[in-house]
Backbone:
């Protein structure tokens, strides 16, 4: 839609999972919300994410053999993760309302999930940790059902696609690399490639949406079907309150024009946090403050608009988080035309057998198969000890079997990444050390020690492959440890990685109803926050896959419930 209204029952800022879920719940409860989107596409961070949704005791857990999960077990696990940083009322609100949110979405919208039978929490050995059931994935979606709105669906990150925009889902990741070794994998690949070729001819883009793009597409279709308007290129500038302190209006900037919209019942902030605001980021990330490169995978519009506007009304930001963001290591890829973009190393390469990570001192510094969040925590700890550069190291056998970052496995092309400098290749380890400016003797010793451990199947230095989560991401065909294999088949490769994030964890402090709290600790009437605008209920920890989207959907739902109930009260 184009022309902005002067009034609305409720205003939701942001079209990611939190914002669209909130709008859908408001509509189902009898209100008429509007959605404001800063960019010209909907979906936000959700559309470019892996799409995992972490909700303990969800309605699909029992279907995959995990009927034993419970609120109590999840609480035990989160206490083990967060300790005294845990805000128990908010965590309990999430655990109570999460399953209800899933049931609502699957009952009244296009959203559909499947739980993972095997999908370990990131620290499954902690009390209350599980090996599956808590993580759900959105089912793949035919985005052609969006009709004209297809052009508004945020596209996935180009480097996460193949063949000119074909999205690759979890099933594809298991099939595509084996297409030359398995008849089943070959036919699967043929089907999805043929579908994509037809999509390009008819729509100019892929329409088989998977992962987070599927969740965004499903939510977007539901928003359209519900008649909820989305106003694009509408950046929030400010909030207004009446004499009682209640939020009653929002100021929106479109180009050079500012528009005022009055709200009858309130505003829900779900604009994605501040990962793309370098000044706000530097204020809470010491490595970025001191000049170290830092890169975010979040969309360009996530610049802290919600946090800034709320703070001007006296709202507080979280101050007790373990980490200010949800970390991921990234490498820098040069696109045609010269622009450098970050590529996240989430789970496809680091845990596989035959790869190590080293600092500029030529030493390993972390369990490479740890979660992306924990890996960067290891980088930052090493940086405190003096490290300034970090590299992933592998041999030719590894890079052709598993790929490395943006380099695809065989039959993907390796040459372009060598020519543009993305990866460095050398015929032997001393030559690679020289090319990367690493101490050759120390680097050789590091590889030799790793190779000895790989032969035994036990990483004596950092425990790579030592947990169920590690082994889940390894190669089950590699014995005895799916995460360990010697680095010995030259030539050898190095790829520099940097600290990055997939979103900020610091956000607006709220209560268990998602109401924004003011300087006096009481709620600011008519103002709510969800998603990454809300201070993470995980307090900057990262317990498992989907711990951003699970709470985002749930607190969008909770905020809508409270607002609608307040609207119906005399």
Residues:
């Amino acid at each position: 839609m184009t022309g902005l209204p002067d009034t609305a029952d409720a205003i939701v800022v942001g079209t990611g999972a939190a914002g669209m879920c909130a709008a859908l719940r408001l509509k189902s409860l009898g209100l008429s919300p509007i959605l404001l989107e800063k960019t010209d596409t909907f979906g936000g961070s959700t559309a470019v994410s892996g799409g995992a949704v972490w909700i303990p005791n969800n309605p699909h857990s029992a279907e995959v053999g995990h009927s034993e999960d419970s609120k109590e077990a999840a609480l035990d696990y989160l206490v083990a993760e967060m300790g005294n940083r845990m805000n128990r009322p908010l965590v309990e609100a999430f655990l109570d309302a999460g399953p209800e949110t899933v049931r609502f979405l699957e009952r009244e919208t296009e959203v559909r999930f499947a739980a993972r039978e095997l999908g370990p929490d990131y620290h499954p050995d902690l009390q209350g940790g599980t090996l599956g059931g808590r993580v759900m994935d959105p089912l793949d979606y035919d985005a052609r059902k969006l009709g004209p709105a297809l052009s508004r669906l945020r596209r996935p990150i180009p480097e996460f696609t193949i063949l000119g925009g074909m999205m690759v889902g979890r099933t594809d990741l298991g099939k595509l690399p084996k297409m030359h070794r398995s008849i089943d994998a070959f036919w699967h690949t043929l089907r999805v490639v043929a579908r994509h070729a037809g999509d390009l001819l008819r729509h100019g883009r892929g329409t088989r949406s998977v992962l987070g793009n599927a969740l965004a597409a499903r939510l977007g279709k539901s928003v359209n079907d519900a008649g909820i308007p989305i106003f694009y290129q509408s950046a929030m500038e400010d909030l207004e309150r009446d004499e009682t302190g209640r939020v009653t209006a929002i100021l929106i900037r479109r180009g050079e024009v500012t528009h005022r919209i009055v709200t009858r019942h309130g505003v829900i902030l779900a604009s994605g946090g501040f990962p793309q605001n370098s000044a706000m980021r530097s204020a809470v990330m010491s490595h970025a403050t001191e000049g170290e490169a830092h890169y975010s995978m979040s969309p360009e519009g996530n610049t802290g608009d919600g946090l800034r506007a709320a703070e001007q009304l006296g709202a507080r930001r979280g101050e007790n988080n373990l980490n200010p963001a949800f970390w991921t290591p990234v490498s820098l890829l040069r696109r045609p035309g010269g622009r450098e973009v970050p590529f996240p190393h989430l789970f496809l390469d680091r845990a596989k057998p035959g790869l190590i990570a080293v600092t500029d001192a030529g030493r390993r510094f972390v369990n490479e198969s740890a979660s992306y969040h924990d890996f960067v925590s290891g980088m930052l700890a090493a940086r405190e000890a003096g490290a300034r550069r970090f590299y992933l190291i592998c041999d030719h056998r590894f890079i052709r079997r598993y790929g490395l970052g943006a380099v695809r496995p065989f039959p993907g092309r390796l040459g372009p990444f060598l020519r543009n400098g993305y990866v460095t290749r050398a015929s032997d380890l001393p030559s690679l050390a020289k090319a990367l400016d690493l101490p050759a003797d120390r680097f050789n010793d590091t590889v030799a020690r790793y190779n000895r451990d790989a032969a035994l199947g036990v990483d004596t230095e950092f425990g790579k492959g030592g947990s169920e989560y590690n082994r889940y991401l390894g190669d089950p065909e590699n014995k005895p440890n799916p995460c360990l294999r010697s680095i010995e088949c030259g030539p050898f490769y190095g790829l520099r990685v940097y600290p990055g994030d997939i979103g900020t964890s610091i956000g607006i402090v709220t209560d268990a109803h998602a109401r924004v709290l003011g300087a006096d600790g009481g709620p600011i009437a008519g103002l709510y926050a969800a998603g990454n605008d809300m201070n993470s209920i995980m307090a900057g920890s990262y317990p498992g896959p989907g711990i951003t989207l699970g709470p985002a959907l749930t607190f969008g739902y909770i905020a809508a419930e409270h607002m609608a109930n307040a609207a119906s009260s005399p």
In short: The first helix runs from residue 17 to 28. The CA atoms of residues 291 and 432 lie 27 Å apart. The chain has 17 helices and 22 strands. The mean pLDDT is 93.
